[in-house]
Specification:
The complex is a heterodimer of chains A (374) and B (527). Chain A is mainly α. Chain A contains 14 helices and two strands, in the order ββαααααααααααααα. A two-stranded antiparallel ribbon of chain A has the order 1-2. Chain B has helices at residues 19-22, 34-40, 46-71, 77-85, 101-120, 122-149, 165-173, 190-211, 213-229, 236-245, 249-261, 267-286, 296-313, 321-328, 330-348, 354-388, 454-460, 481-526. Classes of the chains: A mainly alpha (374), B mainly alpha (527). Chain A binds chain B through residues 19-20, 27, 60-61, 64-67, 254, 257-258, 260-261, 273-274, 277-278, 281-282, 284-285, 288-294, and chain B through 1-3, 84-85, 89-91, 267, 278-279, 282, 285-286, 294-295, 297-298, 301-302, 305-306, 308-309, 312-313, 441-446.
Chain lengths: 374, 527
């Protein structure tokens, strides 16, 4: 299960291709979610000027030699985006546009709303601080924050930082739904047309702009990675020739490089292009990996919970570290924070994410059985 | 998971390169499905051919863009744009995007040369490498000396380029890289001394690698660590030696990939060894051993990813004459582009505009490469084969068909490693193809009560997973006991598939004979 794409865990919805289910992607999601937790933890320790020796080790052995962002920022996001493009394109092949949107939004929106409401409550209780530094929220702030409209308002209201990637997901889902007939008849055309649109958007959004326009530029910049994932699936399934896929993918990557050069979109450090390139290669390698651990129930279960982990971990880890690290030390506080994250993730996955998913499926089933009777 | 990767080692004709010419008429593959047949028609490892070819071209491009155009302050929007989207974002502006190619060549070397070394043994392998590496190198050194004498501006590393009998000798045998002060005539030859050191380490460790691959790898990594740590202890030559040894972790990673994918070591061990090799390479970076910028580790990471991607995608790749031809000439391209292209560019500029001059320089280089390939490299390959041919035929094993006189199979050259990607026959029957199969399943570590024998493992798991070059072990091995059993297991694992296919062919032949006999019997009364 992808943290960002929220594709159902049912066997039908898994990324199957001519070579079968890509178990390696499950493992990669587990790795990406672990890296995501590490990135935010290391950032918290760095910002609060507390010693975290593991972060020094990672920096010496990986981040610096590979010229990546400090604390490997953006690694997790890139992996999730590419996988997202792959998986969503795969499932879009057998769904109607309305059904596709219902299922995809049904997977991301409820959990997102619950997490944002929890974070709004915690912010008003003074336990958690909004990404945009607000320490108390009005009803309107909560409303704009929970609906993600706060990304485009002035002043900006962002409750949980990681939710910016949801803007990319929503844009991508909408684009896939809109181009679905084309995706079936001329599969190469939607990603190619997207490249042209992205080029245009980046041209218009570059330079000194308002926050809202800048945010659209950010979406245009990073959505290229999701389209690269889409192209991987289209090439793998034989719908797009490898040469065509490579050419369009190169254009998308070129747009990402260009956006990086324009500046202002990549706020995680100077290693965005290298991070993106290595992560794309990693996805291409991992999609072939199999083996007992990759196929294990543990990896599958973790993989299914990565969306919940992705959304909730900052909300759990930051307040816990802030409260406990000065009292009991960094490592014990981190352990408590991780345990809390795991527990809250489990609750959210079972009682929100999967509950809504099952309800939607039941409703679809009921509708499909009642339709012929009428 | 990768699909079947079958190799047909036997050639119908010595010149057959493409798929058409390489498939014998009577072949087990003819009974397979179209896709399987297409795969089994392969005679080479396609991803290595593509990787070598692309790598050589990238090095060529980078030297033109970063070394010639960049260092002569030539203004070119064409190269500026290409650099802006390739080498600049990857922190490789100084050396160019071709920096990725060098670790790829080293990886290929470790991956492909190790099984050859185990198959050939110390003397044969040593002679083979000697006669493959040095003739083109000596030719290039002599040509370089000639061009320097007439005042050509060549690709240089910044060290002295004094021409004398001594420097010609040291450069030809590559020891110039270990003598202080360095005199470097051929700028790109530094990778060859790394190769030669790797070959020497490999030759010394062949007996260990044959018995205990894990121990051989551990010794290699320890050796690298000791040399790096003692870099300042034994004089300047030792320091220069340490600089070259600091690149050895790359071919060792190639070896680790080979050992892991052929299940000579478990995946967890492969992961641990790779992490250690990576750490040693990063250590070399931190110690700034011969590094001119800080992009070496990134180049290695990209090369490893591309290598693994190619390895896993191999079942889907097809042989293409274009890639094979380029791959076979990649060693010559690698050695000669800095001479010919630079000399031609120096001659033409500024009289001819830059881009036409570059096109002419590239064309001249390829023309010269063709000459070098035909009249220097190919003869050196023949010599290598002659020297490395076994003196006596090994006795046939009960598991395989009798081995005929090995056919001279043309081998490809890589820019650095210059070893063949062809799958040469281990044991082959005169009329049937032996298809050598091995595993490329990447499995994550698991707890095993005991090691699964090779044959059982091949049967239990996806038996379509294959990898090139399962080494042939001598059948007259005097050692008994566990080693003997292990060698037998390995050999059996490799030969079983070949034997099965040979058996299948025989069965088909028998069926055909039976059918034709029956038909002739039926026809006889009618006549």
């Amino acid at each position: 299960m992808n943290t960002l794409t929220n594709v159902p865990t049912t066997a039908q919805a898994r990324p199957r291709a001519s070579g079968g289910y890509m178990h390696g992607l499950d493992l990669l999601r587990v790795i990406a979610s672990t890296v995501g937790v590490y990135v935010h933890t290391a950032n918290w320790f760095a910002v609060n000027q507390r010693e975290f020796s593991f972060s020094d080790f990672v920096r010496t052995v990986l981040a610096d030699p590979l010229q990546l962002n400090p604390h490997l920022s953006f690694t997790d996001v890139t992996i999730f985006m590419v996988i997202s493009g792959m998986v969503v394109t795969h499932v879009a092949d057998r769904e109607r546009p309305g059904q596709f949107l219902l299922r995809r939004f049904g997977r991301i929106i409820p959990l997102l709303v619950v997490v944002l409401v929890i974070s709004a409550v915690l912010i008003n209780l003074g336990v958690f601080r909004a990404e945009t530094k607000q320490t108390s929220l009005s009803f309107l702030d909560v409303l704009t924050g929970v609906t993600l409209a706060g990304f485009f308002t002035t002043p900006t209201v962002i409750l949980v930082g990681v939710t910016w990637t949801l803007l990319l997901q929503i844009t991508f889902y909408s684009y896939v739904a809109a181009t679905m007939p084309l995706l079936r008849r001329r599969p190469w055309l939607p990603p190619a047309a997207a490249a042209a649109l992205i080029c245009l958007t980046l041209s218009l959004a570059s330079g000194p702009q308002s926050d809202a326009v800048h945010r659209i530029g950010v979406i245009a910049c990073f959505i290229t990675l999701i389209f690269i994932g889409q192209l991987i699936t289209l090439v793998r399934s034989g719908k797009v020739h490898v040469g065509t896929g490579l050419a369009i993918g190169t254009v998308h990557f070129g747009l990402f490089v260009w956006a990086d050069k324009l500046g202002g979109y990549a706020y995680s450090g100077g290693g965005m292009v290298r991070t993106a390139f290595l992560c794309i290669l990693l996805v291409l390698v991992m999609m072939y990996v199999g083996g007992p651990v990759t196929k294990s129930a543990f990896v599958k279960a973790w993989s299914a919970r990565t969306y919940a982990i992705y959304l909730i971990h900052p909300v759990c880890i930051y307040p816990t570290l802030a409260a406990l690290a000065p009292q009991i030390g960094n490592v014990p506080a981190l352990l408590v924070a991780l345990l809390l994250t795991a527990a809250v993730t489990e609750v959210l996955h079972r009682y929100v994410e999967m509950a809504v998913h099952r309800r939607i499926r039941r409703w679809e089933k009921k509708r499909s059985t009642s339709a012929p009777a009428r | 998971m990768p699909g079947p990767l079958l190799f047909s080692p036997q050639r119908r004709s010595g010149t057959a390169r493409g798929r058409r010419g390489s498939v014998p008429l009577e072949s087990p593959a003819r009974t397979q499905t179209g896709a399987d047949q297409a795969r089994s028609e392969k005679t080479r490892v396609a991803f290595i051919d593509i990787g070598r070819a692309v790598g050589a071209l990238l090095v060529f491009y980078s030297h033109i863009a970063a070394q010639w155009v960049g260092k002569r302050d030539e203004e070119s929007r064409f190269f500026d744009v290409l650099n802006a989207v390739s080498s600049d974002p990857f922190h490789m502006s100084l050396q160019g995007i071709g920096e990725v190619a060098v670790p790829f060549f080293f990886l290929v070397s470790g991956f492909v040369v190790t099984p050859i070394a185990l198959r050939h043994g110390q003397t044969r392998f040593g002679l083979n490498r000697l006669s493959r590496v040095y003739p083109p190198m000596i030719f290039t050194v002599l040509l370089t000396a000639l061009l320097i004498t007439v005042g050509g501006g060549l690709l240089a590393t910044g060290q002295a380029q004094t021409i004398s009998a001594w420097t010609l000798f040291t450069n030809s045998v590559l020891v110039n890289y270990l003598i202080f002060p360095q005199v470097v005539l051929v700028g790109v030859a530094w990778t060859l001394i790394v190769e030669v050191i790797f070959y020497l380490v490999l030759i010394l460790l062949i007996p260990v690698l044959k018995r205990w691959v894990w121990l051989g790898l551990a010794i290699e990594l320890t050796f690298v660590f000791i040399v790096l740590m003692s870099r300042a202890q034994f004089g300047k030559s030792w320091s220069l030696f340490a600089v070259n040894v600091s690149y050895l972790p790359i071919p060792i990673i190639g070896q680790i990939i080979w050992a892991t994918t052929t299940k000579r070591i478990p995946l967890w061990a492969g992961g641990v060894y790779t992490a250690l090799a990576w750490s040693l390479y990063v250590l070399g970076d931190l110690l700034k051993l011969g590094r001119v910028d800080n992009s070496y580790s990134l180049a290695l990471a990209i090369a490893v990813m591309c290598f693994l991607m190619g390895l896993f995608a191999e079942p889907r790749l097809r042989e293409r004459k274009f890639w094979i031809a380029l791959s076979e000439r990649s060693y010559s391209i690698y050695l000669l582009h800095g001479l010919i292209a630079f000399a031609v560019l120096d001659l033409l500029r500024p009289a001819v505009p830059l881009l036409p001059a570059v096109v002419i320089a590239v064309a001249a280089t390829f023309a010269f490469v063709e000459l070098s390939y035909r009249f220097v490299e190919k003869p050196s390959h023949k010599l290598a084969r002659r020297l490395s041919r076994p003196s006596a035929k090994p006795k046939p094993t009960p598991m395989s068909a009798p081995e005929p006189e090995p056919k001279p199979a043309p081998e490809a050259a890589a820019p650095v490693a210059e070893e063949s990607t062809e799958i040469t026959p281990a044991r082959e029957h005169r009329d049937s193809r032996a298809i050598v199969a091995a595993e490329v399943t990447i499995e994550l570590p698991r707890v095993r009560k005991r090691a699964v024998p090779a044959v059982a493992a091949a049967e239990d798991e996806d038996h379509t997973q294959v990898l090139p070059r399962v080494p042939n072990y001598p059948t007259t091995d005097p050692d008994e006991g566990s080693r003997r059993r292990r060698l037998d297991d390995n050999a059996r694992g490799a030969v079983t598939v070949a034997a099965l296919l040979a058996e299948q062919t025989q069965r088909e032949q028998a069926r055909k004979d039976h059918r034709s006999e029956r038909r002739s019997r039926e026809n006889r009364p009618a006549q």
